[in-house]
Design goal:
The complex is a heterodimer. Chain A is mainly alpha-helical. In chain A, about 80% of the residues lie in helices and about 0% in strands. Chain B is mainly α. Chain B has a two-stranded antiparallel ribbon with strand order 1-2. In chain B, β1 and β2 form a beta hairpin. The chains are: A mainly alpha, B mainly alpha.
Chain lengths: ~240, ~240
Amino acid sequence: MAGEARGLSLRQFKAILHKDIVMELRTKEMITSMGLYALLTMVIYQVALSQSGTAFDPRNIAAGLLWLAFVFTSMLGLNRSLVHEKDQGCLEALLLSPVDRPVIFFAKAIGNLIFLLIVQVLTIPVFAFLFLQQGSYAGEWWMIPLALLAGAIGISGVGTLLATMSVNTKGKDFVLTVLFVPLMYPLLLAAVSATSAAVLGGDGSVQQFWTGMGMMAGFDAIMLLASFALYEFIVGA
Amino acid sequence: MNRNILVLSMLVLGGVLTTVGFIMAFFFTPPVLGPAVTNEVGRILGYQPLFSQKIFYFHVPVALSSFLVFFFTAFYGVRFLMTKEKQYDTRAKIATEVTLMFVILTMATGILWTRFEWGRWWVWEPRLTTYFIMTLLVIAYFVLRNSIEDEERRATYAAVFGIIAFIDAPISFAITRIIPSSVHPVVLRSGGGLTGSQLAAFLIGLFGMLMIAYAIFHTRMREELVHDRLEAVKAALEG
């Protein structure tokens, strides 16, 4: 019986995730808007750095710039992914169907994670092409994907909970920003530290990287557990 | 009626205790010796009594109180989610209001101290950063409340956010400490133990603050109850 229920949950999970991915493949809306947003952020960076002089090496702040782009694009994506559900009455239909609430949470969070990871993978080469051509990449290459993944897990997990709240408020995306940024602060700090160690390399960078990764893992574990436990109340309200 | 007397006496006692703690801090506690530093970074010339340290007897009790009261936001949030009773939502809301007051006091005194000791109004130092984030979280709590009209939904969302924010605050504190910031060197003075009179002044201040917090909490609670009764009476008269 328990095994059967687990099988059912897995099928439901796959169905919701499948729906999100199929919708994305048909409309290409999330990736286009998030990718374009990330690209436009690069233009803003160019303006911001335009007076910094030739001695300034953008590599020193590369990790911060990257995560800044990811924060903004992920807020855009999170908001969209839940606005779709709400505007088309899909969330209500999901709630009426006999699907466990945690299954909805995980399916939406994994969907958001996938989109965010795709955007990250697309953004990084563009960023490197635009800003990091002088000077070589000094760190270990495998550090980058690990740091990106750990950060993205936290962002999409807690973000899914917050976005589900914010789509039901009057302020929508504004409310999401106000809730999202301070809650994500510790994760972003650790993510930038780890990514920075990966980009810059040098003495102690391996240790700095693993410290950051440990912090992110702790944040992800605690906050995901909390979001998972509290999601039921949010979708039910 | 008993509750009212208790609240009133707590308020008076809290006022007296914080005042006593304040006076003790200035007149009865020995000064703390701090390093006398030159403008060159980190060169310690010798030690001098630190007058600015007196703010410790106000700043730290307020900071501790803010954390303690914030705990009640999360606690009543959990109670609300368990029972769905409106009173717990009101309690959580008021606890957050009191938290906001204490957090703002903490920020203000912290910034004064930073200006005096480190010569700058603002430094991204772990404790300041954490408090800044906590202020934002508390403000976000009210932004969230104000943007929802449905009463039960507002209560549920606020409860969930209160719990998440309370979990986030200590994580933020830990991470800002552990992740080294390369931008500003962190100046942390290793705190030696407190002497008897210092500890006494500190504890008296702390208990005073907590009593004031309790009194404000219950006064606001009564105000809300009276407000609810008024609304009920209005509705009855109109209907």
